[in-house]
Amino acid sequence: MGVVSVESTELFVGSVEAPLQVVRVSWEAVGAARVHVEGERVATPSPVEVSAAGHVGVEVAVDTRGAAPGTRLPARVVIDGLGETAFELVVAEPGWTMHMVSHFHYDPVWWNTQAAYTTAWDELDFPGSHRGARQLAGFDLVRAHLDLALAEPDYRFVLAEVDYLKPYWDTYPQDREVLRRLLAEGRVEVMGGAYNEPNTNLTDPETTIRNFVHGMGFQRDVFGGRPDTAWQLDAFGHDPAFPGFAADAGLTTSSWARGPFHQWGPMEKTPSGKGDPTRMQFPSEFEWISPSGKGLLTAYMTDHYGSGWSLDSAPTLEVAGEAAYQEFLELKKVTTAKHVLLPVGGDYTPPNKWITDLHKDWANRYVWPRFVCSLPRDFFAAVRAELAARDEEPTPQTRDMNPIYTGKDVSYIDTKQAQRAAEAALLEAEPFAAFATILAGSDYPDAALAKAWVQLAYGAHHDAITGSESDQVYLDLLTSWRDAHDLATGVRDSALTVLSGLVSLPDGTGKPVVVWNPLNHERTDTVTVRLIEPVTGATVTDDAGAELPVLVENGTVTFLAEGVPPLGWKVFRLAESARDDQGWTAVDGETAASDRFRVTVDADQGGCVRSLVELHSAHELLTSGAVGNELALYEEYHDHPTFGEGPWHLLPKGPVRTSSEHQAEVTVERSPVGERIIVEGQVGTVRYTQTIALWHGVDRVDCTTTVDEFSGQDQLLRVRWPCAVPGALPVSEVGNAVVGRGFGLIDVDSARHPWTLDNPAHTWFGLSAAASLRLADGALRPIGVAEIIVPTEAEAAPLARELAVALARSGVTSTVSSAAGARYGDLGVDSNLPDVRITLGGPEVNAFTAEVVERSGVSGDGVYWVPPEKPLPEVWRPSADLRDARTLGVLVVPTAHIQSIVDDLADHVIEVGAGSPGQDEYAGRSVALLNRGLPGFAVDSAGTLHASLLRSCTGWPSGVWIDPPRRTVPDGSNFQLQHWTHEFRYAVAAGDGDWRGAGIAENSAEFSRPLHAVITVDGGTRGLPARGSLLRADPADRVRLAAVKAAGNPLTRGSAAQADPRECLAVRVVAPTGAPAAATLESDVVVLSDLTAANLLEEPGAPVSGPIEVAGCDAVTVLARPSAGWSTVDGAVLGPEAEPVQPLYAKYWLHNRGPAPLGGLPLAVHVDPTRAEAGEPLTVTVASDATDVDLHGYVRLGLPGGWTAEPAELPFGLPPGGHLTSEVTVTAPEGAEPGRYPVRVRVEPTGDALPVSWRQVVEDVAVVTVGASIEQDKLIRLSAEPEPVRLARGARGRLAVRVASTANAPVTLEAALVSPWGTWEFTGPRLVGAELPAKGEVELGFDVVVPPWAAPGRWWALVRVAGAGRLLYSPTVPLEVTA
Fold first, then answer.
1. Which of 19, 75, 877, 1126 is 20 to 30 A off residue 1069, Cα-Cα?
2. Which of 747-761, 791-805, 1250-1264, 1267-1281 shows the lowest per-residue confidence on average (mean pLDDT)?
3. From CA 323, how far away is CA 479, in angstroms rounded?
4. What's the whole-model pTM score?
5. In this predicted model, what pLDDT tens digit does every residue of 340-385 receive, in sequence order?
6. d(Cα 393, Cα 383) in Å, to the nearest integer?
7. Helix, strand and coil in the chain, % to nearest 5
8. Phi, psi of 1220 (to 5 degrees)
């Protein structure tokens, strides 16, 4: 009869009470026909009547008479008059709902600029750009979604990033009421709770916390939303601490697209078709748990965050509905409940054109599944309700959601160095500023600190810190990192100067030097004093009068400061002497040593280290026959051969050149404080200098690799140290924890093996043990990444959650899967690999246990270990597949013994007592590579530690430029190619025991956060002792101070309240070892009282009586009132309370400046239009973001000479969140010269009670044209370009541009000096401003002052000039420091 197909569907019609399953039938019809389906348990209540010819498809509603879902029923399709066809009807399950969540993913910067992405994309677009056909700028996106919501009552959508929310909120305050109404009606949901979508695996954990502080402050307190879901759509992996931080910030759920599986997920499209989601080892909804034990109900976007956007390309509603249905069929395979989340949106996308029609049409056609416009809040509520009805909990997952996009850890490496340096400076600036306020009466620089943090939050965005941005965006981002860095170091240095002036000085000669320790434990380390006037010799004495050995070089004096108290100080004296023997002295040989280590290099092997001996144990740390500190230069593809993504991935071709292949120049030098080796050599396109310093009394080997010259492209530079530790596994520091990481797959051709498994580390990585199994004869077998296998999915939470948390606190992340489910360990889908399996339940209840026991022949009565068939290094291979039950060792844990294993993990060792490790027994040592802003690492299975130093990539968006003319490095190369001097600092540390026993974390903290020396003067009021602690947390071996600051963060939430540490301190205590701690706070200068628990937003909770209980890997915030027994009134300014260029430009995003100006811009003014004809009225809007005070002031117009305005000024008084709109008429004088006239509309707040940072004048500019129109982009132009700067140490120079105007009225200019990390110390200031006269010129200049201690190098610099929304980028010029 020509039946083409019969399909059992998941569709239902009828009613909720009596649903009928739809069977789809198609055939070649020849006229009228009647169609029904029948069978023993199948009936058709209403046959379908058809009258047609040709190909016909119908949906037949079938009653399956209560058959259970999944049942296969024999059935027949009967077409009267034509015959019948037998088929098997698969009974579907009614009750499903697909939640279509309309969203747009917004990157504030990426390949295009902040100005374009916020408002100016149409204006700045260019032929051949990567802009999609329907992509819109931020303001247009908000407007498009808002307009549809106002037109369609069924439409619902989400908003997220502060990057576009605040500019829109301020520019269109008339939309505030409607947005809040839609929020109240549940038709808009504000997502994220964070400032943006940060890449938390590349930043300090405190930066993640401040991202929430700034995000919640605006989204909740200013905007009025109720953020509940961490909306991390596109982040390139996540720090393991993230879900715990989000939970402590008040969020309960999260949703994102990248993490447990490779960048496009398990359903990634391949030449053979779309991937199978059932390769996932756990449902798409799960509890994502941090090592702290806190977690979020999470929805993983199985088919990525753009899965629903494809509906937009459907030509008809019917086609769109079918596409949605097919997506539903795939996604439902892996859901926890009968609810499917379909994200309907993509990058910068307006509302999907079919979403509301589909919402209505589907409801008219089908009872189940429901396809509804929904919000994440409703989706998660539905999932929770269903789990509760089943008396179940989501599966617990502590899985490491890394690595994703391994290139992100090293592309534009200088930005990661800048981020790390600024973070360290900020974390030191806050406590020192707080105590300078408490003890000396200084004003706490809240505005400066808040601006620095929000700049770091802005830079933490997943297309910023990751290095996936275009060249122009990279330059703009450099100005943001410099802003944060300079604000932080300025506050820190000012506060230390104030505090040093309060310290009592010991008797003696010479200048008093106060040495400050920013860490929470007492330490001994070298410290360097930088002198304004260099000396040839010096004498340093400690507080007991003992003279210390010193090193004098290039205007600095370095000595060993012993026993500097935690977050405290110790006084020394420094006097000039006539000695000239305190510098470096060259000696023969290739060996240098301290009292801790001995290093020998080989000039014939590129100066690489051929021996590194730990002296106290006489242990050789290097692998026999290998060399360390070796540079490896890899050739790379410009784009990934499969994925086509350049800067995102590491793209090795396989061949590698090493520094050991060539001879190098080696110099060994000694000084009174230590010895060093200097190596000068070349490998390929890299000319380098390496310095290895061994300081007496310091338990590490400090290394610097300087890339003096680099001319390559599509290359990766690594440094490697072969330091095999038998049995050890890779570990790395992450947010407030240390976790195991799998071996890297280093020297591969990424066209054949795409995954190198490089990972990001915070400040160190190495070989050690996170946790271990103690087997026969006490042999230890470390474990790092686990799969926990439960009998059934429903048992995952009750059986595995507590164990998963205990393992995570010990550093072992885990994936919890079920015996019948997919196994973890296929590099074809999984983003990382396990090294051990833990199966819960014996063979009688767990099918996986039964398989392992049967195949291995190993069994036991209690907990027992089944060794793998082969040692781990033998199976850990490129493109590895470790899913077989015998590939990895298996720990069998009967359910009755689970709690004993949890308890056993208190010391990070599980006592098994029997079994072979199946590989080398752990040698009980640790070795680590410490870094300063070099997160990318890999440890291969041979035990070689690799750190990524530098990457050069020509793949898109390398070289992309938006505002012409395109700028390059002076040699004509793209900035992504990194053709300038780079300095990389790292260190080697080692010790007995695991990383905890070896003190690796403390050693790394000391390397990352050096001691600070402040020269002070005798005299003055000095109430502090010669040594002491501002604050310390005990026990210091279990807890550390993560943050000490004034409590409250008022500026972030639009509050005019003062952040005053004298009233309340916020102290964050973490327990990074994984062990719980009962912490106490002590101080030598204040008494703390009224301790109160708080969340990460510093909102108070319950009083704290007794010790502060800190769970392993948790961050606990407490508030306390400090009372100083002694104080003075210094009144010193610790940080700026206004931007350096005034007035502020309201549309700051058009200048690519990053976040709102210092103070947060609580009062904004906007004029519309900004380009007007003479006589055209101007609409002026003033808006307040204040939440707790009225704002008063005046709007005044800066008019061209002879012009008038009506009204001439506008007084205003705005309640919290209020706004005012008024029309202004501007009139040109009779006979005004044709041209363009900038009219500056300024808002001038009044009221001395306001924070100083809120009293800044803000202006917007309308350019009014008289007569013939002139090209807008010529308003300002460069009339003189900068000249190259080449200076010797100690010399001064200047870098300047001249700017000319074609405007007929003045324009406010702001110029930013843009130069790479490594140059900021001697160039500045970072910003200068000027008023550019009508048709005049002005010079904007910057000083270059090279200190005597500066290292030689070749860099570049340019000047970015902004005014009235226009941008100019000067050409780059060489910036060189000679020896």
1. 1126
2. 1267-1281
3. 45
4. 0.98
5. 999 999 999 999 999 999 999 999 999 999 999 999 999 999 999 9
6. 10
7. 20, 40, 40
8. -140, 135
Residue 601: its pLDDT value, please?
Answer: 98
Give the model's pLDDT for residue 1131.
Answer: 77
Which residue type, as a one-letter code, is found at position 11?
A: L
Q: Can you say how many angstroms the Cα of residue 973 is from the centroid of all Cα atoms in its chain?
A: 28
Higher pLDDT, 1098 or 1273: 1098
69: amino acid identity, one letter: P
**Residue 1345 in this model has a pLDDT that exceeds 60:** yes
pLDDT of residue 533: 87
Q: How far apart are CA 1009 and CA 985, in angstroms?
A: 12
d(CA 187, CA 765): 46
Tell me if 105-125+132-404 shares its fold with 1276-1378: no
Over the stretch 765-786, which tens digit does the pLDDT of each residue have?
999 999 999 999 999 999 999 9
Determine how many CB atoms are found less than 10 A away from the CB of residue 539.
18
Q: How far is CA 204 from CA 200, 489, 733, 933, 985, in A?
A: 8, 17, 11, 10, 18
CATH fold label, 770-911: Chitobiase; domain 2 (3.30.379)
Q: What is the mean pLDDT of residues 216-243?
A: 98
Contact 957, 1030 (CB under 8 A): no
Q: Please choose, from the candidates 234, 412, 198, 1369, the residue with its C-alpha nearest in 3D space to the C-alpha of residue 958.
A: 412
Q: Looking at domain 3-90, does it have CATH number 1.20.58?
A: no
Fold (topology level) of 1276-1378: Immunoglobulin-like (2.60.40)
User: Among residues 1312, 1340, 1361, which one has the least CA distance to residue 455?
Assistant: 1312
Burial of 1231 (0-12, 13-18, 19+ CB in 10 A): exposed
Q: What mean pLDDT comes out for the span 625-653?
A: 96
C-alpha angle 549-554-560 in degrees, rounded to nearest 5? 25
pLDDT digits (tens, 9 = 90+) for 54-100: 899 999 999 999 999 999 999 999 998 788 999 999 999 999 999 99
Residue 997: count other Cβ atoms within 10 Å of its Cβ.
14
Ranges of H-type helices in 846-980: 847-856, 872-875, 898-904
Q: Where are the alpha helices (DSSP H) in 770-826?
A: 796-809
Element (H, E) at 59: strand 48-62
Q: How many residues make up the chain in this entry? A: 1379
Q: Which residues pair with 1110 in a beta bridge?
A: 1077
Q: Which CATH number fits domain 105-125+132-404: 3.40.50.2000, 3.20.110.10, 3.40.50.2300, 3.40.190.10?
A: 3.20.110.10
Sheet of strand 1276-1280, all strands in order from the earlier edge strand to the far edge = 1276-1280, 1292-1301, 1337-1345, 1323-1324
Q: With bands split at pLDDT 50, 70 and 90, how would you rate the model's confidence at 1270? A: low
Q: State the pLDDT at residue 1269.
A: 66
Structural tokens at position 1357: 């610099």
Contact 1363, 1276 (CB under 8 A): yes
The model's pLDDT over 707-719, given as tens digits with 9 standing for 90+, comes to 999 999 999 999 9
Q: What is the largest CA-CA distance in the chain?
A: 117
Q: Cβ distance 1308 to 1363 under 8 Å? A: yes
Any idea what the Cα angle at residue 853 is, between residues 851 and 856, rounded to 5°? 100
User: Is the CB of residue 1356 less than 8 Å from the CB of residue 1375?
Assistant: yes
Task: Give the mean pLDDT of 1042-1064.
Answer: 97
CA distance 159 to 154: 17
Residue percentage of the chain with pLDDT more than 70: 99
* Cα gap 911→905, rounded to integer Å: 9
Q: Report residue 1127's pLDDT band, with 50, 70 and 90 as the boundaries.
A: confident
∠ CA(980), CA(981), CA(982), 5° rounding?
Answer: 115
Rounded to the nearest 10°, the torsion over CA 1346, 1347, 1350, 1356 is -20
Q: Which CATH superfamily is domain 1162-1266 in?
A: Immunoglobulins (2.60.40.10)
Q: What letter represents residue 1255's amino acid?
A: R
